[in-house]
């Protein structure tokens, strides 16, 4: 078989659009060159609508985790209290970061595969009245859960003075995010998920409340000191050398999002989620997550009783398609399909048909074609509904 | 939808492997530079096994048609007689080229969609004893027919002194070709089909008999004078400036073919053909070509009675997948699926599932999932058989 031909259906890094790849191949420029300043200014402003903020978005060179730590390190210091809603491995990471800072962490642990619902958070906040900030995960990459961030942040703002930090790494760009309107104090994201770039850039949208809180925070920080990014951005630059080629690519990504239109981007992601879920169900496989908690960007599927999800992943890899495994205690128990960024409904059909062949080849019970058919029917149904709604709008 | 994401399932140009694209991005070199000479020497020799010849393969800069014309222009002159077996648009092109040279052309017209069978050729050759050369098409791109070239060339060699010219443009690299053993005098191919390159290079494998015939041929020629290519190749170069970046890519393609192994390349193409045909049949669509005449590189499918194949093609394009239409009198009556070069079985499944959705969306009768299922079952069956044969070899 063609050894280097594969479909990357993991929840990040995601495939790079060819025009973005080309843009990143442009000749290097100096990071203090006026061309780079123009680029920094343009992309930080054009990211605003993607994060739902009027402010320019800060550009960090680092992985998503660097932005998670930046949020924590700029808002909290040793001995202060923070609440972390842990719905999976990335909520857990927030807690680990805060623990490393010797912050007093109150964990609200939710069963992996379920979202945190507002009532749970209400009760938890009442128990911990002194928390300075609440850390939430928007899409929990490890489980495919989309937490109801708008509602959760709303409850925090209604009931407490705490700041809210949201990890949007694996969904911003693929689902609506309204940092300003929802009252998120720091919304962070990474480049390598729905934003269709290689890893290496992280982003943070910061509220005025958060800037105020940072001013007096004694926690030691240098590379991740967000106020330096803010001051630099006022001069259209970054405090240190940024990943310049990724900035070239980001401009192209923003063009692509503009051309498709954010509403269409979001409905494409919802459609891919619905098709994936319809296909998985038709194959009699078990989804980790209920419909109401499901993310449009990633879907986790439980392994079977008579076959190993790791064997399935290996077989899929042989067929030319890559999905992710489980993390921590879900390792070997689930597999995860990414459907975000440079992905479209045909990718979902390819994934499901590969899954059908792979299941058969590892000897798992499978009705070939059933998953693909269900996903096709979902696509046909949605496109008919779209057609009708376009017609009605036209009348 | 993602406007620039599409699957190119036409019978050429075919998708370019990323590593080939990268190789072609290398800095330009002069065409008389020693590095370019080494490259010309290497690729012309390494192409030999792909064409089944001990001789270095000539490298022309031009489309496939330039090599078809080169074969004609070097072997024949005004007033001489040639036989052309026309099984579709590309056999017809050979006849047009020869007519433009004022060669006396005897056409053996075979119904489009069928191969020429050796008995038909026998009878035809008897009627035309003075033909100097017989022009044959290996894979007829316009119909998806693979003519039985080994047998046809064998009959010509057995019964006549005529030279044989074979158009292998849309299959060499995807099916076994043995120019020397089968007695083909000129076998030509293009870069943009099973050889996974952009258009711009054409190739010719030439026998000693053909070189002898060329020596005395008075037909005027300059750019397409094959003897100049031969003389230049003896000095590891080309008579004119070659498409250097395509030569960079060709070296990478030859590495890929070596790494996969030609037998595996051929069985991958056969599998894609079988999967496509199984899928099309399961969808109750009509194949243009019978199994025994079918090419592993391209499959033609008839349009329906209640829907237009052009509407289907447009809808597929909207979904993110491109197939070709019919040519000449088959225009609007068939569509053609390419499955060659940088293509794998998952591409066939993607194509079939897209086809199912597109048929439904244009209101054609379709059982969603049925084609995908049949193709999956074919893949599963073949992989089980391969597994058994590996096991047996192991015993």
From TrEMBL, chains A, B:
Residues 34-328 form the Aminotransferase class V domain. Substrate binds at residue 336. Keywords: Aminotransferase, Pyridoxal phosphate, Transferase. GO terms for molecular function: alanine-glyoxylate transaminase activity; L-serine-pyruvate transaminase activity. Gene3D superfamilies: Aspartate Aminotransferase, domain 1 (3.90.1150.10), Type I PLP-dependent aspartate aminotransferase-like (Major domain) (3.40.640.10). It holds the Pfam family Aminotran_5. Its cofactor is pyridoxal 5'-phosphate. GO terms for biological process: glycine biosynthetic process, by transamination of glyoxylate. The modification N6-(pyridoxal phosphate)lysine is found at residue 193. It comes from the Bacteria. Belongs to the class-V pyridoxal-phosphate-dependent aminotransferase family. This is Aspartate aminotransferase-like enzyme. It comes from Melghirimyces profundicolus.
